[in-house]
Every structure is written in C-alpha cells, then in structure tokens.
Amino acid sequence: MFKRILIANRGECAIRIIRACSELDIESVAVYSEPDSHALHVKKADQAVLIGPDPVKSYLNIHRIVDIALKMKCDAIHPGYGFLSENSDFAEAVIKAGIGYIGPSADAIANMGSKTAARTAMLAAGVPCIPGTEASLTSSDEALQVAKEMGYPVMLKAAAGGGGRGIRRCDTDEEVIENYAMTQREAMAAFGNDELFMEKCILEPRHIEFQILADSHGHIVHLFERDCSIQRRNQKLIEIAPSNYISQELRERMGAVAVQAAKAVNYVNAGTVEFLVDKNHDFFFMEMNTRLQVEHTITEAITGVDIVSQQIRIAAGEALPFTQEEVSFKGHAIEFRINAEDPQNGFFPTPGRITRYYSPGGPGVRVDGCVSSGYEIPPHYDSMCAKLTIWAPTWEHAVTRSQRALNEYDIRGVKTTLPFYRNIAQSDVFLAGQFDTGFMEQYPELLNYKAFEAREDIAAAVAVAIAVHAGL
Ligand code: ADP
Ligand code: ADP
Ligand code: MG
What is the CATH class of 4-102? Predict the structure, then answer.
C-alpha cells in the first residue's frame, strides 16, 4: 500500500481524499496556491506545499506538482475532479516520474476525454450512442447539412467539453449558423480546443449514469446508477440514487452496457459512464468521465462502498474485494450541491465572507465541505462550497429528511443555493420523484423565495468582526 499521497486538488474534493488517506493510514500531502494559504485542505493534510502565486494556474502546473511529489517522497498522486483530473499528459508525467497515478491509464483518459473519440470507441464496442457525427465538423456549412439530415432539434457540442460548457441546442438553420461560431469560441476559451460535433437532441431526457470500479486484475463491476437530471444549463445541481425512473430490468441492462463500455477501453480505476434515457426508456451512451465524480457520495450512501478508498486500493494493485453479485444497494440518497451562487440572479457566483455557518447533522446526513464561519470564499474557483448528502430507507423519507437537514443548514454572509433547494425539497414535483433535464425550466416558481433577513445578517457579520478583532 502507498505510504504518502499527494492530492493535486483543493476544496471539499481534497478534503474527501485526505479523509480516505487518513482511514487507510496513509500520509497526505496537500498542494495549494497563494490565495488558498488559509484553505481547509491545507490545514487538514499532514503536510502542505505551496505551488505558486497564481490561483488557478498553480493547480494546473503539471511540472511543479510532479516535482513536489518527488521532493516530498510521495508514492502516488490523486487528481480529484476538475483541474488535471482528465488530463492524459498529467497522468503520463506522473507515471514517467515513477509515481503511482490514482486513476485510469493516460490512454484511457485520452480515448474517453474526447467525446468524438469516445463515440467511435463505443460504437465499435457495440454500445448504443446518441445518434450523431463521429468525426468533428469542419465548418458551419457542414454543420447545417448534418443538422438537415439528422432533423431538428440538434445539439452542437464541444468534443473536449466538460462541466456543461460548450453545448448548444439548435432548432433551426439560423440557430446552427449562429451557434456554430459561438460554441467554437466558448470551447476554445474553456478547453483550448474548438473541435465541435453534432448529436440529435434527445427530448425530455433523463441523465442516468453508472459508477464503475475496475481493478488491474481484469475485474469490472458497476455500483448502480445516479439520476442527475436536475440540472441548470447542463450542469448538475441535485443528484439521486437509485433512479426512480428505471426498472430493475433496465438497470441490469444499462449496468451491463456500462461495464462493456469500460472493458472496451481497458479501463482501470473508478469511472462513470453517462447515458441519456429518453421517454420510451431507450438509453444512449453520452460520455465517460475518467475520474472520481462530485456526486460519488450518493453511491457510497446506498452501497456502503468507499469509492475513494477503492480508487487508492486499485491503484496500489489490490483486487476488488467484491463481485458484481456481491454488491447491492439499499434505500435512497440525494445530493444537494451547495454553491455560493444567487439562484435569483441567474446563479451568479457570490464569493465573499461567510459570516455564519451551521451545518446539519443527525441520522442519514453527510456534509462534505470546505467552508466555515469567517471563511472568505475566493472568487477564482468553482462556486461549490459544500455537498449535502442525505440517505433514508425510502424515497419519501429521504425527501422529508432533506427538508429537515436543509432547514438546519444555515449559511450567512453570502447567498447560496440553499433556499432554492428548500423550495425544491418541499415541492410535490420533487416528491413525485420523476424529473427530466427540463425540470428547472418547467418549474420556474421554485425560484420564488425570500432571501434571508438582512438584519440577522448584519448581526452575524458584526459577531464575526468582533471575534476576528479579539483574535478568536
Ligand atoms: P461531475 O459529473 O463530477 O459533477 P462536473 O462536470 O460537474 O462533473 O465537473 C466536476 C468539476 O470539474 C467541476 O468543478 C467542474 O467545474 C470541473 N470540470 C469538469 N470538466 C472540466 C473541464 N473540461 N475543464 C475544467 N473544469 C472542468
Ligand atoms: P459535460 O461533459 O459537460 O458533462 P455531457 O455530454 O455529459 O457534457 O452533457 C451534459 C448535459 O447536457 C447532459 O446531462 C444533458 O442534460 C445535456 N445534453 C448533452 N447532450 C444532449 C443531447 N444530445 N440531447 C439532450 N440533452 C443533452
Ligand atoms: Mg457529462
């Protein structure tokens, strides 16, 4: 087993990995940018090393991170999610330096990282894909021609896309022409790659993904599905496991296809195969994420498997401790991404100082966070500051428990997605448990709530100022 692991990430993701290391009796080494000097992951790790002054580029500095790992005598690196987690050059540099990489091979990352390359590999493996182009588009004229052949609506998508960016629906010829250049520009800015392809737009789709674990001895299992249909602008907000939409029979079929997809690219370690399921319950491969996923916590809640520990064990060469027949799930789990964003202002990020932070607890409540009272959320990073994961034996109980935990949760000083989630958790449409990716547009009234009382906020801010002044 590894003795010391470097965590090439920040925030709640780094803390999640530090926790796994601690339980496995492995030392953790955090890395950080200058603005993160007081971040929680820096305090929680056994050791911490400054990468450099730049808030974002620091966490993307392959050479420097590998160098720190060598100097600190780390025998493995965990990339987390975001940042370098889907960068095959990073995986390759780590392996070349003689350090273990806690993730799949550089080849698997490269093959699945490009959505067009992944489609080609999946079609060859007999996996049903969303109808679309295999090669990338070369011009808006070609895009127009493909759209006419495919029939509207279509989706223009960035081959290198991620995080919901670089995806645009087009309903008319004009929209294809208009969106082509725009999507290209967005893809170039976000991913440094402006390759686009086109897919048929699946109507009223459910985003249903399967968690995969594969060891280096040829065993692959899936840990069932997560339904991530509650999204905004193609970005996940709330995820549930299991899905209320698919039958046991469909679950088994989709799970088998997910395993088949992973096998086709000789996949090792944790990964996620994402599908869209349409209103006829037909399912289509959409993409594979070759890393740990933000929403892995709901799978942990229903299966009892510690996915991050398994990632580390797999990278260390251990065999999976269970077979497909031996994994099962129990109850229902819901994850709420607590983002420092103002839902009533287009989910605009709200960095700033947290004046009061009370996290919920009690049965079936898990909080993965990186913020506390007095913490200043920096403006440079993803706005997710905590994840609330609820588990209960039944769906109805998971919903009432969510209401209870969301009411206990109190974050002041910055606006967050909390009051919006309270509305969702209390709505009949959420309790019904059936939603597609159009949920947010369908129920705009869920955005109607009163933000917290300004007076209480000022009181909390004064309390923090006094505490800071008194050196508490
Ligand atoms: P998940 O399915 O794990 O929720 P997300 O797409 O939400 O995946 O991405 C997880 C994290 O990684 C988020 O912080 C997101 O902003 C970031 N991310 C995902 N893909 C990319 C990418 N290609 N480039 C930069 N950041 C990304
Ligand atoms: P990312 O890499 O950003 O996660 P995905 O390809 O996984 O991109 O798509 C993200 C989301 O965009 C999906 O969960 C879905 O809501 C929407 N989407 C993507 N492709 C399609 C499609 N062909 N039809 C309908 N919705 C789509
Ligand atoms: Mg995706």
Answer: alpha beta
Query: Which residue has its alpha carbon closest to ligand 2 atom 16?
Result: 234
pLDDT at 113: 87
Confidence band, pLDDT 50/70/90 cuts, at residue 471: low
Tell me which of 130, 167, 230, 437 to substitute to probe ligand 2's pocket, judged by most ligand atoms within 8 Å of the beta carbon: 167
Q: What is the mean pLDDT of the chain?
A: 95
Q: Please compute the mean of the pLDDT values over residues 267-279 and round it to a whole number.
A: 98
pTM beyond cutoff 0.85:
yes
Segments in 201-295 forming alpha helices (H): 248-264
Give the whole-angstrom CA distance, residue 244 versus residue 458.
Answer: 42
* For range 373-380, the mean pLDDT: 96
| Residues 132 and 156: beta-carbon distance below 8 Å | no
Cα(163) to centroid of ligand 1, in Å? 4
Task: Give the whole-angstrom CA distance, residue 408 versus residue 36.
Answer: 28
Cα 191–chain centre separation: 17
Residue linked to tokens 């209401």: 403
Q: pLDDT at residue 454 above 70?
A: no
- Residue 291 known to be catalytic: yes
Residue nearest atom 18 in ligand 2 by C-alpha distance: 234
Contact (Cβ atoms closer than 8 angstroms) between residue 396 and residue 381: no
Residue 452 has pLDDT above 80, yes or no: no
208-456 belongs to which CATH class?
alpha beta
Per-domain residue ranges of the chain: 4-102, 131-200, 208-456
130 lines ligand 2 (CB under 6 A): yes
**Polymer length in residues for the chain:** 472
The CATH code of the domain at 131-200 is 3.30.1490.20
Pick from 238, 286, 287 the residue to mutate for probing ligand 2's pocket: most ligand atoms within 8 Å of its CB.
286
CA-nearest of 234, 255, 245, 419 to 332 is 245
